[in-house]
Design a protein that fits this description.
CATH architecture of the largest domain: Beta Barrel
Number of domains: 2
Strand order of the largest sheet: 3-2-1-4-5
Number of helices: 5
Shape: elongated
Number of strands: 5
Length: 164
Amino acid sequence: MIEKTAVVISTNQGYAWVRAEHTTSSCSVCSSLGSCASISSFFTASNMDSGKIQVANPFHAKPGDHVIVGLPSNGLLKSSILAYLLPLMSLVIFAFLGNELFTWLGVNGEFGSILMGIAGLFAGLRFSDTLIQHSELKEKLHPVILRKNISTEEHTIKFLTPVT
C-alpha cells in the first residue's frame, strides 16, 4: 500500500477532495519534487491546476482534517504493466509481422515494419485500456482514506520541571 498524508479540502456523498502535503523537510528541498514517483504523482497528474484528487471517504473526514490516503501498490503495478509493457510488446510483434508480410508480398519490408509497428502500438494501447476498464484493476486504482492522521503537536503533553 502506497500512503501519503493529505488534507481534506471538501466532502461530498462519501467522497472527499484532498490535497497532498509534503510532511518532511526533505520533500521541499528535493530536486525531484515535481517528478516524484510517490503517491504525490497522483495528486499532480489528476488535477494539474490545484493538485487535489477525489478519494473514497469511509471515515467521514471533514474539511481541514489531516488524513492518510492509500493506493494499493499491486493494482498500480498490474496496471502499469498493462499500460506500458503490452503496447510495447504489440509494437515489436506487429513490426516483425509487418516486415515478414510485406517482404512476402514483394514490397519494402522496412516500410511494412514501420507501418505495422505503429498500428501495433495503437492497438496495444487500445487493448490495454479496454483490459483495465473491464477488469477488477479499475476499482483497485482508486485511492481511499485509510485513517485520520492525529498530529502529535495537538496531543503533546508538556511536563513542568521545577526550577532549581
